[in-house]
């Protein structure tokens, strides 16, 4: 079977998700979901949302020298207020193949490296470069991607640089498209320091030349995967591997993370390190859990892709345990059945992906891989027989300096429209909040005087949506909800405001639509909206076991038992620490024992309450809005769970690293008399 690249594999998986099980169940789903009540809950809110972004990479490399009219239209579609309104950009530090290697990468994929090789340098010449020799740097490199940096710098709030591959002379294979063994480390062990110096030096040159400040730098891209390989033809020339990529396993990743701070300091780059841009949350967790504490400490921001969708909540809880910001730093997909600019399925698929990422991952930013794709590669006969819907915007990557918007047309598909339902209504500075519907995402506005909710109806029937605003403290008498609808009948069509009556507003959304609801006249958090009330008693019941946490017979350890209402199963809130919202730290007390819940030697116990603050007694609670919670211990970063997924009476309650298992989720029930 022909090798499927990481990106086409992602497309296949995501397309199957959208066109397979989901669409096959549409008739039943349409009947079941004819009406839904959605309750946004501001008592559980995230930190300020940083915004929406994109990697520049291939599309910027391909179009940076296009005629002005084409570039300007693209820029407005991407960064303009009427376009996607993106405010985050990721600049790709190209690796670059040797001067004597004929270009074999996909259109736009050959991003120029920042090195300057002596005349006559070949692929076998690998020991000539020195970070300290100015002659070995090409300060004029990558003019096309850098045109974009200069054009959009007033639109961007956060710059990140990242690498897909080290330069050829730092790789084992001698090519930037990966190793001959895709599962072997591609960065040479003795090039770690050079690679760190290269990333830092290129970032500094970019900052100086374009007048920007880079906030974060990620040295990796999906490093612990088998995606990246180079194949040679019978003539010895590369025939496989059409994009830059490098396998770098967790052990080698840590060596790079150890070398990068000194390199950044030497280059006078003040960017934080982000890592490790893994392809999915599961592999991210594998990498992160193998890191030493020193390696984790070197990382200022955690970046993950969601080409795989399992274990989002694992990475969410790992980020909370590490007390670090988390980005969804790359995703794209097809969600359709052949290239189309009118089919609603791609737009609905992207919209549901965004909802799921925001709800389960709780990222501070959401970033496209690249919303501009090569029309020629996506048309039938391009990357697949039917073509594809990668990108929200498509145009040929082969246009010339003599082309016009007529000869080099720009197309937008339904993903462009449904993405704007998010980017126009959930804005930088807003705070994402809990919502109890898996098809909705919500946020409170930056000024705290309103809210936005985006609802996805992927079914073939209209759906009546009632928005319950009872979790807000204040609902003004003139409060309204204004729907803005994207469907096959129109793009971002604003409807008449709906008056809020008795704390509710109802609107019927069309079939196969994405609707943004702009809520005016609400603020604050209702007194009864929070999870815990002082003096109330609660039980913690395991989702997987169906049994409640109780104090064991020895009076110290915790076990599970049938919910029989005994005081040994009742827990009260003893204190709150830290920020409010999704990283609030709770202290639980068992009043019957006069003790508090703590973790000692990774074992949960009840112990006397000394009244002194101790991270071992503090817990961060997370939810996707489904009524279940995880509890992360602040001192250990481990989650409260039922050991071994046991269900028997008296089974031990333990702690373990986050894994999204149902034995790590708990239902909280108020049992106050």
Automatic annotation (TrEMBL):
Gene3D superfamilies: 2.80.10.50, Glycosidases, Golgi alpha-mannosidase II. InterPro entries: 6GAL-like (IPR039514), 6GAL/EXGAL (IPR039743), GH (IPR017853), Glyco_hydro_b (IPR013780), Ricin_B-like_lectins (IPR035992), Ricin_B_lectin (IPR000772), TAT_signal (IPR006311). SMART domains: RICIN (SM00458). It comes from the Bacteria. Residues 1-30 form the signal peptide. The keyword Signal applies. Residues 535-669 form the Ricin B lectin domain. PROSITE patterns: RICIN_B_LECTIN, TAT. Pfam families: Glyco_hydr_30_2, RicinB_lectin_2. The keyword Signal applies. Keywords: Lectin, Signal. SUPFAM superfamilies: (Trans)glycosidases, Glycosyl hydrolase domain, Ricin B-like lectins. One of its GO terms (molecular function) is carbohydrate binding. This is Ricin-type beta-trefoil lectin domain protein.
């Amino acid at each position: 079977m022909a090798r499927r690249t990481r990106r086409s594999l992602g497309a296949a998986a995501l397309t199957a998700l959208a066109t397979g099980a989901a669409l096959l169940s549409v008739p039943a789903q349409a009947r079941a979901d004819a009406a839904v009540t959605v309750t946004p809950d501001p008592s559980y809110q995230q930190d300020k949302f940083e915004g929406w972004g994109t990697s520049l990479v291939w599309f910027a490399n391909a179009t940076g020298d296009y005629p002005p009219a084409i570039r300007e239209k693209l820029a407005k579609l991407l960064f303009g207020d009427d376009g996607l309104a993106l405010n985050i950009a990721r600049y790709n530090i190209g690796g670059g193949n040797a001067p004597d290697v004929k270009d074999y990468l996909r259109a736009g994929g050959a991003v120029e490296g920042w090195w300057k090789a002596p005349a006559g340098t070949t692929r076998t010449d690998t020991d000539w470069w020195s970070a300290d020799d100015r002659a070995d740097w090409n300060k004029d490199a990558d003019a096309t991607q850098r045109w974009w940096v200069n054009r959009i710098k007033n639109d961007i709030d956060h710059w990140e640089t990242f690498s897909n591959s080290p330069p050829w002379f730092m790789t084992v294979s001698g090519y930037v498209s990966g190793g001959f063994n895709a599962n072997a480390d591609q960065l040479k062990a003795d090039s770690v320091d050079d690679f760190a110096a290269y990333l830092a030096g290129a970032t500094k040159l970019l900052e100086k030349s374009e007048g920007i400040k880079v906030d974060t730098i990620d040295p990796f891209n999906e490093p612990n995967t088998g995606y990246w390989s180079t194949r040679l033809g019978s003539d010895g020339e590369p025939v496989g591997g059409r994009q830059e990529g490098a396998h770098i396993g967790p052990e080698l990743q840590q060596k790079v993370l150890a070398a990068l701070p000194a390199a950044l300091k030497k280059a006078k780059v003040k960017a934080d390190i982000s890592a490790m841009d893994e392809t999915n949350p599961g592999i991210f967790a594998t990498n992160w859990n193998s890191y030493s504490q020193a390696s984790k400490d070197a990382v200022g921001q955690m970046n993950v892709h969601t080409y795989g969708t399992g274990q989002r909540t694992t990475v969410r809880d790992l980020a909370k345990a590490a007390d670090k910001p988390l980005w969804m730093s790359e995703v794209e997909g097809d969600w359709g059945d052949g290239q189309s600019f009118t089919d609603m399925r791609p737009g609905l698929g992207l919209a549901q992906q965004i909802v799921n990422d925001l709800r389960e991952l709780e990222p501070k930013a959401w970033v496209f891989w690249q919303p501009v794709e090569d029309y020629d590669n996506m048309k039938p006969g391009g990357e697949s027989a039917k073509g594809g819907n990668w990108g929200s915007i498509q145009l040929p990557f082969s246009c010339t300096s003599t082309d016009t918007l007529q000869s080099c047309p720009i197309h937008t598909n339904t993903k462009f429209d449904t993405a704007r339902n998010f980017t126009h209504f959930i804005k930088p500075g807003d705070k994402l909040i809990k919502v109890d519907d898996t098809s909705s995402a919500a946020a409170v506005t930056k000024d705290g005087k309103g809210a936005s909710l985006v609802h996805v109806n992927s079914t073939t029937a209209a759906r009546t949506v009632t928005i319950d605003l009872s979790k807000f403290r204040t609902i003004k008498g003139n409060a309204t909800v204004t729907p803005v609808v994207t469907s096959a009948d129109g793009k971002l069509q604003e409807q008449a405001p709906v008056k809020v009556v008795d704390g509710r507003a109802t609107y019927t959304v069309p079939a196969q639509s994405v609707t943004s609801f702009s809520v005016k006249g609400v603020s604050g958090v209702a007194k009864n909206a929070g999870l815990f009330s002082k003096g109330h008693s609660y039980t913690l019941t395991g989702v997987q076991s169906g049994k409640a946490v109780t104090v064991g017979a020895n009076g110290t350890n915790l076990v599970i038992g049938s919910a029989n209402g005994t005081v040994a199963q009742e827990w009260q809130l003893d204190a709150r620490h830290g920020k409010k919202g999704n990283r609030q730290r709770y202290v639980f007390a068992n009043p019957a024992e006069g003790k508090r819940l703590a973790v000692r030697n990774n074992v949960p116990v009840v112990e006397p309450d000394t009244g002194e603050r101790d991270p071992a007694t503090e817990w961060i609670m997370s939810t996707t809005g489904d009524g279940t919670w995880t509890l992360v211990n602040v001192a250990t970063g481990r989650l409260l769970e039922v050991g071994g997924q046991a269900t028997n009476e008296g089974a031990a309650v333990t702690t373990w690293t986050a894994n999204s298992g149902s034995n790590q989720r708990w239902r909280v029930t108020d049992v106050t008399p």
